[in-house]
Amino acid sequence: MPKRTLSLLCLLTLLAGPATADECDQLPPPAVTLQRLDAPLGMNLQYGYKTLTNLGAELGPPGKAVLGLTRGNAIVKFEIRIPAFIAPGSRMECASPQINVVYGFKPMTVYVAREFPAGSCAYKEIYEHELRHVKTYQDHLASIEKDIAATLSKRFATGGPWRGPVGETRARLQDELDNRWLPYISREISRVKTAQALIDTAEEYARVAESCDGEIKRKIR
Question: What are the DSSP E strand ranges found in the chain?
Answer without folding.
Answer: 8-9, 12-14, 31-36, 41-44, 68-86, 92-95, 98-112, 162-165
